[in-house]
Amino acid sequence: SISKGTLMATNVSDLVEACATVRLARACKLDHVHIPEAPLDVLAQHVVSMGCIQRWTKEEGLTLARRAYPYRDLPMEEFINVLDYLAGGGKSLRQQYTEVFGKIDWDGETFETRQGRVRREFLQNIGTIPDAVSVRVRLKRKQLGSVEESFMKMLKVGDVFIMAGNAVRLDRVAHLDAWVSPAPGESPTVPRWNAAKMPLSNRVCEEIIAFRSELKARLGSEELPEPNAKEVSPHAAWIAERLDCGKANAAMIWQMYEAQHRFSEIPTADFLLVEEHTEYPRDHLPDAVPKMKAPKFTYRPSKRASDAKPVARHYFFHSLIGRASNDALARVVSRRLSQLRGGNAVATPHDYGFVLTVAPTQQFTEADFPELLKPQNFDEDLEAALAESEMVKYHFRNAAQTGLMVYRNYFDERKPMRKVQWSAEVLFNVLHRYEPDHILLREARREALHVYVDVDGARAFLDEQAKRPVRLRKVDFVPPLSFAMYATKIKEALLVEDPFEMMERLYHLWWGQIEKGKEGTE
After folding, report:
1. In the 8-state DSSP scheme, what is residue 308?
2. Is residue 161 within 8 Å of 190, Cβ to Cβ?
3. From CA 73, how far away is CA 115, in angstroms rounded?
4. Fewer CB atoms < 10 Å away: N or C end of the chain?
5. Alpha helices (H) along 70-201
6. Which of 30-34, 66-70, 234-238, 270-274 shows the lowest mean pLDDT across its residues?
7. H helices within 388-416, ranges in order?
8. Cis peptide before 234, with omega less than 30 degrees from 0?
9. 345 CB contacts (<8 Å, ≥6 apart)?
10. pLDDT at residue 289 in the model
11. SS3 of 516, please?
């Protein structure tokens, strides 16, 4: 049988993405499968299961482990490190806590799982899927609500987010409690609603880049004529054929890319486009305007005062490499800018790039790009950025459960997640201080760097970008291909006013400015 599905696009960017996905599916071009390389927590659990059957020599154990593809190149030294950990918990714990953390009898040449309690506890705690838990958000003694732990792990102390309709600042995180303080009038510094969204695949990214490059080559540097609603643009006709999307869809796609070409530039893989947009206080922006029918737009001039001071600058980096890679890239660029200019730059990752929101004093120029985007020391800068968040600690708890350092079930009962979290945090603090190269800490860092964020994709992008130019363009409004990134940036703000009203106001303001720009070119 043939599987069939319908792709529903919620915006024009989604429409291009859906068309690219359909083309790839019809051509049977599937995404590459990324298999984790030698996860040591899983190996530790498997070694314990091996030892329940018989006594093994280290050579026999390594040979069996290498039969699994992820461990095909596992060195003997790494296998011995796992055995040393299972023998007593690691170097820092072995002297006093061997009986607590020891799982195997290991004499330096052979190993076997201990009898009795260890084997019973192993059977009760087999598995690699972490438990999903919530973190309670507290304002002094009052509980405001709870958030998913996957969201909390992204934050660092000082970040602002929305809770119960109000902006709050994170002050401290301990176990499964987060203490906050009020931050009235401040904008959120982190996007929240990305957890359920699947990241854009690398193949689809490549297809969209190819489409953009071909369209930009067709346009060249020509002056576009004023659009005529009665005539079908030859470019729209080409888009309908190129994306196999029909005339109506092609007309909408062309409308967006035509506006992007007029007022900024269509980004391709030949260069990195960075758009700089200055945001002014909301008091100087137009209020909500009456509804209107596309494609005719009306524009009410801005009330911006001549002496209005900007509240922020947004830099839209058009790095179309997927959200996981952009997450890693955005964290590093944000950290480097903070080191250059001081303060805290706010980075918001997106599938199509990332937004860097800076204070007026953090404005940068093209001369700063070599420092911000250099491939050198990328891994070190990313690890330093991740160390400021709860992410590595979060992944350590998962690794500690899979690696049997912390049990989920004990004495035939499931332990409360608060106790599991407390045990994991205590062990994390001890190992982080006394044994930073512990195999479970290394596994936690690997997961943070290669699963949650894509360090390899970000590094590969910077290596290629070093050979290509960066183009910085100042724009008076958010360009069409940056609007999706900007919408991700402001999603938290939508919680403090009616979302439909705000999005409609932004939509009319956005297209009104585009139409006004077209009038100015006549």
Report:
1. P
2. yes
3. 31
4. N
5. 76-88, 91-101, 117-124, 149-152
6. 30-34
7. 391-402
8. no
9. 333, 334, 337, 338, 356, 357, 358, 362
10. 38
11. helix
Strands of the sheet containing 104-106, edge to edge, are 56-57, 110-113, 104-106
- State the Cα torsion 395-397-399-400 to the nearest 10°: 160
Pairing mode, if any, of strands 177-182 and 134-139? Answer: parallel
Token pair for 191:
């996007």
What is the separation, in whole angstroms, between the first and last Cα of the chain? 56
Sign of CA dihedral 82, 87, 89, 95: negative
Per residue in 23-49, pLDDT (tens digit) is 998 888 888 788 889 999 999 999 999
For residue 94, give both structure tokens. 């072995």
In angstroms, the CA 476 to CA 478 distance is 7
Provide the mean pLDDT of the chain: 83
User: Each residue of 246-283: pLDDT tens digit?
Assistant: 899 999 999 899 989 988 999 999 999 999 998 876 54
Q: Encoding tokens for residue 2?
A: 């043939």
pLDDT at 374 over 50: yes
Q: Which two tokens stand for residue 17?
A: 């993405």
Query: pTM for this one?
Result: 0.79
* Local confidence band at 230 (pLDDT 50, 70, 90 cut-offs): low
| Three-state SS annotation for 204-267 | HHHHHHHHHHHHHHHHCCCCCCCCCCCCCCHHHHHHHHHHCCCHHHHHHHHHHHHHHHHHCCCC
pLDDT for the residue numbered 451: 78
- What's the rounded Cα separation, in Å, for the pair 479 and 273? 12
